[in-house]
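[Discussion] Sanity-checking designs against the backbone

I'm trying to build intuition for which residues belong where. Below is a C-alpha coordinate string of 241 positions. I'd appreciate it if someone posts a full sequence so I can compare it with mine line by line.
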Protein backbone atom coordinates (compact mmCIF):
# COMPACT_ATOMS: atom_id res chain seq x y z
CA UNK A 1 0.00 0.00 0.00
CA UNK A 2 1.41 3.41 -0.97
CA UNK A 3 1.55 6.41 1.35
CA UNK A 4 -1.38 8.02 -0.45
CA UNK A 5 -3.56 4.95 -0.02
CA UNK A 6 -2.60 4.80 3.65
CA UNK A 7 -3.55 8.45 4.05
CA UNK A 8 -6.87 7.87 2.29
CA UNK A 9 -7.58 4.94 4.58
CA UNK A 10 -6.97 7.23 7.55
CA UNK A 11 -9.42 9.82 6.25
CA UNK A 12 -12.07 7.17 5.65
CA UNK A 13 -11.58 5.91 9.19
CA UNK A 14 -12.02 9.46 10.49
CA UNK A 15 -15.27 9.88 8.57
CA UNK A 16 -16.42 6.45 9.75
CA UNK A 17 -16.24 7.77 13.32
CA UNK A 18 -18.50 10.76 12.56
CA UNK A 19 -21.76 10.93 14.49
CA UNK A 20 -24.96 11.48 12.52
CA UNK A 21 -25.14 15.08 13.69
CA UNK A 22 -21.61 15.61 12.36
CA UNK A 23 -22.57 13.97 9.06
CA UNK A 24 -25.64 16.19 8.72
CA UNK A 25 -23.58 19.30 9.37
CA UNK A 26 -20.81 18.18 7.02
CA UNK A 27 -23.26 17.26 4.26
CA UNK A 28 -25.06 20.60 4.46
CA UNK A 29 -21.82 22.61 4.49
CA UNK A 30 -20.43 20.72 1.49
CA UNK A 31 -23.60 21.17 -0.53
CA UNK A 32 -23.94 24.86 0.32
CA UNK A 33 -20.34 25.31 -0.81
CA UNK A 34 -21.02 23.48 -4.10
CA UNK A 35 -24.18 25.53 -4.66
CA UNK A 36 -22.24 28.75 -4.11
CA UNK A 37 -19.38 27.52 -6.30
CA UNK A 38 -21.79 26.78 -9.17
CA UNK A 39 -23.38 30.23 -8.95
CA UNK A 40 -19.97 31.90 -8.79
CA UNK A 41 -18.69 29.89 -11.76
CA UNK A 42 -21.77 30.75 -13.80
CA UNK A 43 -21.43 34.47 -13.10
CA UNK A 44 -17.68 34.42 -13.77
CA UNK A 45 -18.05 32.73 -17.17
CA UNK A 46 -21.03 34.89 -18.09
CA UNK A 47 -19.05 38.06 -17.35
CA UNK A 48 -15.81 36.98 -19.02
CA UNK A 49 -17.08 35.04 -22.04
CA UNK A 50 -17.39 37.29 -25.08
CA UNK A 51 -19.49 34.95 -27.21
CA UNK A 52 -22.98 36.06 -28.19
CA UNK A 53 -25.87 34.93 -25.96
CA UNK A 54 -27.69 31.82 -27.11
CA UNK A 55 -30.97 33.51 -26.24
CA UNK A 56 -31.83 37.18 -26.05
CA UNK A 57 -32.34 37.32 -22.28
CA UNK A 58 -31.59 35.20 -19.24
CA UNK A 59 -34.57 33.79 -17.38
CA UNK A 60 -35.53 36.19 -14.57
CA UNK A 61 -34.64 35.28 -10.99
CA UNK A 62 -37.75 34.66 -8.91
CA UNK A 63 -38.25 34.18 -5.19
CA UNK A 64 -39.84 30.76 -5.76
CA UNK A 65 -36.78 29.65 -7.75
CA UNK A 66 -34.49 30.76 -4.95
CA UNK A 67 -36.46 28.73 -2.41
CA UNK A 68 -36.62 25.69 -4.69
CA UNK A 69 -32.90 25.85 -5.45
CA UNK A 70 -32.13 25.97 -1.73
CA UNK A 71 -34.39 22.99 -1.16
CA UNK A 72 -32.40 21.17 -3.85
CA UNK A 73 -29.35 21.74 -1.66
CA UNK A 74 -31.21 20.07 1.22
CA UNK A 75 -32.18 17.16 -1.04
CA UNK A 76 -28.59 16.71 -2.20
CA UNK A 77 -27.50 16.70 1.43
CA UNK A 78 -30.09 14.00 2.13
CA UNK A 79 -28.74 11.86 -0.72
CA UNK A 80 -25.27 12.06 0.80
CA UNK A 81 -26.68 10.92 4.13
CA UNK A 82 -28.40 7.98 2.44
CA UNK A 83 -25.06 7.11 0.87
CA UNK A 84 -23.37 7.25 4.27
CA UNK A 85 -26.03 4.94 5.70
CA UNK A 86 -25.45 2.44 2.88
CA UNK A 87 -21.69 2.68 3.38
CA UNK A 88 -21.88 2.14 7.13
CA UNK A 89 -24.16 -0.86 6.64
CA UNK A 90 -21.98 -2.52 4.03
CA UNK A 91 -24.16 -1.89 0.98
CA UNK A 92 -21.52 0.41 -0.50
CA UNK A 93 -17.82 -0.43 -0.40
CA UNK A 94 -15.28 2.24 -1.26
CA UNK A 95 -12.22 1.18 -3.24
CA UNK A 96 -8.85 2.58 -2.22
CA UNK A 97 -6.75 2.12 -5.37
CA UNK A 98 -5.30 5.50 -6.30
CA UNK A 99 -3.32 4.76 -9.46
CA UNK A 100 -3.90 7.36 -12.16
CA UNK A 101 -5.06 4.72 -14.62
CA UNK A 102 -7.62 3.28 -12.23
CA UNK A 103 -8.96 6.70 -11.29
CA UNK A 104 -9.29 7.75 -14.94
CA UNK A 105 -11.12 4.54 -15.86
CA UNK A 106 -13.46 4.84 -12.90
CA UNK A 107 -14.29 8.48 -13.62
CA UNK A 108 -14.89 7.66 -17.29
CA UNK A 109 -17.11 4.73 -16.32
CA UNK A 110 -19.14 6.94 -13.96
CA UNK A 111 -19.55 9.60 -16.63
CA UNK A 112 -20.72 7.19 -19.33
CA UNK A 113 -22.92 5.05 -17.09
CA UNK A 114 -24.54 8.03 -15.38
CA UNK A 115 -25.00 9.71 -18.75
CA UNK A 116 -26.89 6.64 -19.96
CA UNK A 117 -29.00 6.36 -16.81
CA UNK A 118 -29.75 10.08 -16.82
CA UNK A 119 -30.73 9.90 -20.48
CA UNK A 120 -33.47 7.38 -19.66
CA UNK A 121 -34.40 9.19 -16.44
CA UNK A 122 -34.63 12.49 -18.30
CA UNK A 123 -36.59 10.91 -21.15
CA UNK A 124 -39.04 9.43 -18.64
CA UNK A 125 -39.39 12.85 -17.00
CA UNK A 126 -40.88 14.08 -20.28
CA UNK A 127 -43.74 11.59 -20.22
CA UNK A 128 -46.72 14.01 -20.08
CA UNK A 129 -48.00 13.08 -16.62
CA UNK A 130 -44.51 13.01 -15.08
CA UNK A 131 -43.59 16.22 -16.86
CA UNK A 132 -46.65 17.99 -15.52
CA UNK A 133 -46.06 16.79 -11.97
CA UNK A 134 -42.26 17.01 -11.76
CA UNK A 135 -40.10 18.22 -14.62
CA UNK A 136 -42.21 21.06 -15.96
CA UNK A 137 -40.92 23.49 -13.34
CA UNK A 138 -37.38 23.16 -14.67
CA UNK A 139 -38.60 23.86 -18.20
CA UNK A 140 -40.22 27.11 -17.18
CA UNK A 141 -36.63 28.22 -17.75
CA UNK A 142 -36.80 28.31 -21.54
CA UNK A 143 -33.80 30.56 -21.26
CA UNK A 144 -31.57 30.00 -18.26
CA UNK A 145 -29.91 31.73 -15.32
CA UNK A 146 -27.47 30.82 -12.55
CA UNK A 147 -30.19 29.00 -10.59
CA UNK A 148 -31.57 26.89 -13.45
CA UNK A 149 -29.40 23.88 -12.61
CA UNK A 150 -30.96 23.77 -9.13
CA UNK A 151 -34.57 24.49 -10.07
CA UNK A 152 -35.71 20.89 -9.87
CA UNK A 153 -38.54 19.02 -8.25
CA UNK A 154 -37.25 17.25 -5.11
CA UNK A 155 -38.14 13.85 -6.58
CA UNK A 156 -35.86 14.58 -9.55
CA UNK A 157 -32.98 15.51 -7.28
CA UNK A 158 -33.45 12.44 -5.11
CA UNK A 159 -33.90 10.26 -8.21
CA UNK A 160 -30.60 11.39 -9.67
CA UNK A 161 -28.88 10.70 -6.37
CA UNK A 162 -30.42 7.25 -6.02
CA UNK A 163 -29.26 6.29 -9.52
CA UNK A 164 -25.71 7.08 -8.52
CA UNK A 165 -26.02 5.21 -5.24
CA UNK A 166 -27.22 2.13 -7.13
CA UNK A 167 -24.09 2.32 -9.29
CA UNK A 168 -21.92 2.62 -6.18
CA UNK A 169 -23.58 -0.49 -4.78
CA UNK A 170 -22.61 -2.42 -7.91
CA UNK A 171 -18.89 -1.61 -7.94
CA UNK A 172 -16.31 -0.44 -5.39
CA UNK A 173 -15.47 2.96 -6.86
CA UNK A 174 -12.77 4.95 -5.10
CA UNK A 175 -13.97 7.90 -3.05
CA UNK A 176 -11.48 9.97 -5.08
CA UNK A 177 -13.10 8.88 -8.37
CA UNK A 178 -16.54 9.63 -6.95
CA UNK A 179 -15.42 13.09 -5.81
CA UNK A 180 -13.87 13.89 -9.20
CA UNK A 181 -17.02 12.73 -10.98
CA UNK A 182 -19.27 14.84 -8.75
CA UNK A 183 -17.12 17.92 -9.35
CA UNK A 184 -17.25 17.33 -13.12
CA UNK A 185 -21.00 16.84 -12.85
CA UNK A 186 -21.45 20.16 -11.06
CA UNK A 187 -19.22 22.06 -13.48
CA UNK A 188 -20.85 20.42 -16.50
CA UNK A 189 -24.32 21.18 -15.20
CA UNK A 190 -23.36 24.79 -14.60
CA UNK A 191 -21.84 25.16 -18.06
CA UNK A 192 -24.82 23.38 -19.62
CA UNK A 193 -27.17 26.04 -18.27
CA UNK A 194 -25.17 29.05 -19.40
CA UNK A 195 -26.71 31.38 -21.94
CA UNK A 196 -23.45 31.44 -23.92
CA UNK A 197 -21.71 28.57 -25.67
CA UNK A 198 -18.72 27.60 -23.56
CA UNK A 199 -17.24 24.95 -25.84
CA UNK A 200 -15.62 25.37 -29.27
CA UNK A 201 -18.03 24.62 -32.12
CA UNK A 202 -16.11 21.53 -33.24
CA UNK A 203 -16.79 19.79 -29.92
CA UNK A 204 -20.17 18.73 -31.32
CA UNK A 205 -18.30 16.34 -33.60
CA UNK A 206 -16.80 14.57 -30.59
CA UNK A 207 -20.19 13.76 -29.02
CA UNK A 208 -19.73 16.32 -26.25
CA UNK A 209 -22.89 17.57 -24.55
CA UNK A 210 -22.17 21.25 -25.13
CA UNK A 211 -23.97 24.29 -23.75
CA UNK A 212 -25.81 24.76 -27.03
CA UNK A 213 -26.76 21.06 -27.01
CA UNK A 214 -28.62 21.44 -23.71
CA UNK A 215 -29.93 24.89 -24.56
CA UNK A 216 -31.63 23.38 -27.60
CA UNK A 217 -33.34 20.91 -25.27
CA UNK A 218 -34.85 23.80 -23.32
CA UNK A 219 -36.18 25.13 -26.63
CA UNK A 220 -37.26 21.75 -28.05
CA UNK A 221 -38.21 19.38 -25.25
CA UNK A 222 -38.34 16.31 -27.51
CA UNK A 223 -34.61 16.42 -28.28
CA UNK A 224 -31.21 16.23 -26.56
CA UNK A 225 -31.89 14.35 -23.33
CA UNK A 226 -28.24 13.55 -22.63
CA UNK A 227 -26.02 15.46 -20.22
CA UNK A 228 -22.30 14.92 -20.68
CA UNK A 229 -22.47 13.49 -24.19
CA UNK A 230 -24.74 13.32 -27.20
CA UNK A 231 -23.97 9.61 -27.68
CA UNK A 232 -27.30 8.27 -26.48
CA UNK A 233 -29.35 10.90 -28.32
CA UNK A 234 -27.57 10.02 -31.54
CA UNK A 235 -28.07 6.32 -30.86
CA UNK A 236 -31.77 6.58 -29.99
CA UNK A 237 -32.74 9.21 -32.56
CA UNK A 238 -33.36 12.18 -30.27
CA UNK A 239 -30.34 14.25 -31.28
CA UNK A 240 -30.74 17.79 -32.59
CA UNK A 241 -27.88 20.03 -33.65
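Best answer:
Here's mine. Compare freely.
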Amino acid sequence: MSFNETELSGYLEMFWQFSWSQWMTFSLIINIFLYSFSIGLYIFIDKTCHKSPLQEKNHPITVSDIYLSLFTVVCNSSVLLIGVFLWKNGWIELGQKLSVGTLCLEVLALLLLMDLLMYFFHYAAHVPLVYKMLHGKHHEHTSTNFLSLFVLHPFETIGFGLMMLILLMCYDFSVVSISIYLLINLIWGTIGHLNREFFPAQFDRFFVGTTRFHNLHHLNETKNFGFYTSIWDRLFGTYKN
